[in-house]
Specification:
The chain is α+β, with helices and mostly antiparallel strands. The chain folds into two domains: 61 residues, no CATH class; 81 residues, Orthogonal Bundle (Arc Repressor Mutant, subunit A). Helices cover 44% and strands 13% of the residues. It contains five helices and five strands; from the N terminus they run ααββαβααββ. Helix 4 crosses helix 5. The protein is elongated, with a radius of gyration of 22 Å.
Length: 153
């Protein structure tokens, strides 16, 4: 069976499930994901297909795909592994995450997490004298005891 025939057969089988979603945007995302998977892996036998758990939501079944590490988990790992032992700007953090983790990381995605970690006393935020931008460092044990706002400058 050639690729076009295989794709047509798969989409025909999935059309009923895809059409249960009322949002065209969701339907397009599902189809786009399917096409990406087919392009990357080509036709496979049924026994080769990955098995994912099914989540029931609003009387619809949705396949739950494995998640990659989120920014929160990555920042926690970086904090534990000494990344913030030296001052790091949000741009340096985003570049490091882009280079070492799966997927793009944007500064606006990281800024709220950095602020939350600062308020919780895990990070200190100061202005770099060189760049005049905020940099983040691991909070010392003594500075993490006080109120969160005192670490913001």
């Amino acid at each position: 069976m050639n690729k076009a025939e295989y794709l047509k057969k798969q989409l025909a089988e999935l059309s009923e499930v895809i059409n249960t979603f009322s949002s065209e945007a969701v339907q397009l995302l599902i189809i786009d994901h399917i096409l990406d998977q087919l392009e990357a892996h080509g036709p496979r036998e049924q026994s080769e297909l990955p098995v994912y758990p099914i989540m029931r939501h609003a009387e619809k079944e949705m396949v739950v795909t494995p998640k990659k590490n989120g920014a929160t988990k990555i920042l926690s790992q970086l904090l534990e592994n000494g990344f913030f032992d030296t001052p790091k700007s949000i741009g340096e953090l985003a570049d490091f995450c882009d280079a070492n983790y799966d997927g793009p990381f944007y500064t606006n995605q990281l800024s709220g997490l950095l602020m939350a970690m600062t308020v919780k006393g895990k990070l200190n935020r100061t202005v770099s004298p060189h760049t005049k931008r905020y940099v983040y460092t691991k909070a010392s044990a003594s500075s993490s005891m006080g109120g969160g706002q005192s670490r913001l400058q």
